[in-house]
Design brief:
The protein has 392 residues and is an alpha/beta fold. The protein has three domains: 90 residues, Orthogonal Bundle (Arc Repressor Mutant, subunit A), CATH 1.10.10.10; 126 residues, 2-Layer Sandwich (Nucleotidyltransferase, domain 5); 153 residues, ATPase, nucleotide binding domain (Nucleotidyltransferase, domain 5, 2-Layer Sandwich). The protein contains 14 helices and 16 strands. Strands 6-5-4-7-11 form a five-stranded mixed sheet, with helices on both faces. Helix 1 packs across helix 2. Bound molecules: zinc ion (ZN).
Length: 392
């Protein structure tokens, strides 16, 4: 854990339990400056002082060390017609470093990429999982990471990994049953072998970070629902990823959505199906991609629309208390557009509106991700940006 990581966590506590040490304050101010340059583009030192509220002396000092680290560069003078001497613009060197990102959400293949700091994918590599679990799966992942680090055109700032399962903030996978990973310190194992910083988080959480940073999400309460072989969700509130008591916030795929005594209208969903978790009728048993494909197989257009709408309605019912309790502004769906974007999304929004107060749902957006298939990869890159630079 770096000093910067520590300071980030302290900043997030409403009731700080330790005093802020001078080196933490410096790391905090450093990320304020980087955050500003990351989102707003090049600025003069005077502008940075104005927007961050830091003194000119502090800004000059911080910019001086960022220049020597190679993270920022000077870009000529400001063209703005302000009175006085024009200031030299300082900008983040988005192409000066590479970030390696890996998405493990797919059970069949691990997908990896090298990105620059602006989130542009420069190189792609993938590797088949071939049913490997446990230590063999870690070894295969390490091999893919080595390939990606070697392919990076610039110095690698870090490696970000989106993993299935429950992952703590230090990158230990607490449980990922389908990989047979339990209490596995994945981030520290990979970092030790690769010699670069490694950050690991749950794959739905990384998708939420990608949407927050690169997908145009407002950050005023965002839930990203990832729909694939399973169903997961990541939540960003007030610009911070919600972890939850046991680091399992967002695990709504195993909330019961269909039960025996069901009297919810719409096309019948049938008897509750057995779930991989050992119970029956979980949201995942109707909303996972394989479950939806089975449901619509052989149906005509009308039957298909009705079947997807009834799944969407269940989704809306499950989401209504979540949206109300957190007063979310956006719910973003990530998964196959041909299944999610249409009758399913309309029915989910309809159910949400019906079951929540207008103040909660009238301005609620329920939309498809704007990041396509690269959402999880850009989110894994954000893990590195936020872990190493305090930028998201
Ligand atoms: Zn389940």
């Amino acid at each position: 854990m770096t000093a910067l990581g520590e300071s980030t966590r302290q900043r997030r506590l409403l009731r700080p339990t330790a005093k802020v040490l001078p080196e933490h304050a410096r790391a905090h101010n450093r990320s304020l400056v980087l955050q500003q340059l990351f989102h707003d583009g090049p600025r003069s030192r005077a502008d940075l002082a104005r927007t961050t509220g830091l003194t000119r002396v502090t800004i000059s000092d911080l910019v001086g060390s960022l220049l020597s680290e190679g993270l920022v560069t000077e870009l000529g003078t400001s063209a703005e017609g302000r009175p006085g001497k024009p200031g030299t613009l300082v900008g983040l060197r988005t192409d000066g470093f590479s970030v390696v990102a890996v998405d493990l959400a797919d059970d069949e293949r691990m997908h990896g990429a090298v990105l620059d700091l602006s989130g542009t994918v420069l190189e792609r590599r993938s590797a088949a999982v071939e049913g490997r679990t446990g230590a063999a799966a870690v070894e295969a992942l390490l091999e893919l990471c080595r390939e990606l680090v070697a392919a990076a055109p610039e110095q690698v700032l870090g490696v970000g990994v989106g993993s299935p399962g429950v992952v703590d903030p230090d990158g230990t996978v607490l449980q990922a049953p389908n990989r047979d990973w339990f209490d596995l310190p994945l981030a520290s194992q990979l970092a030790g072998a690769l010699g670069v910083p490694v950050h690991v988080a749950n794959d739905a959480n990384t998708a939420a970070l990608g949407e927050f940073t690169y997908g145009g999400a407002s950050g005023g309460g965002l839930l990203v629902l990832t729909v694939g072989g399973g169903v997961g969700a990541g939540i960003v509130l007030d610009g911070v990823l919600v972890q939850g008591h046991e680091h399992a916030a967002g695990e709504i795929g195993h909330v019961t959505a269909v039960d025996e005594r069901d009297d919810v209208d719409g096309a019948p969903l049938g008897r509750p199906a057995r779930c991989a978790c050992g119970r029956s009728g979980c949201l995942e048993t109707v909303l996972s991609v394989p479950a939806m494909r089975r449901r619509v197989e052989g149906l005509d257009a009308e039957g298909r629309a009705a079947a997807l709408a009834s799944v969407g309605r269940r989704l809306g019912i499950v989401l209504a208390p979540v949206v109300s309790a957190l007063n979310l502004s956006e719910v973003v769906l990530s998964g196959p557009r041909e299944l999610l974007d249409g009758p399913l999304r309309d029915a989910a929004l309809g159910a949400l509106r019906e079951r929540t107060m207008p103040v909660v749902s009238s301005s609620l957006q329920l939309r498809m991700t704007s990041l396509g298939e690269d959402g999880a990869l850009s989110g894994a890159a954000v893990l590195v940006l936020s872990g190493q630079l305090g930028v998201s």
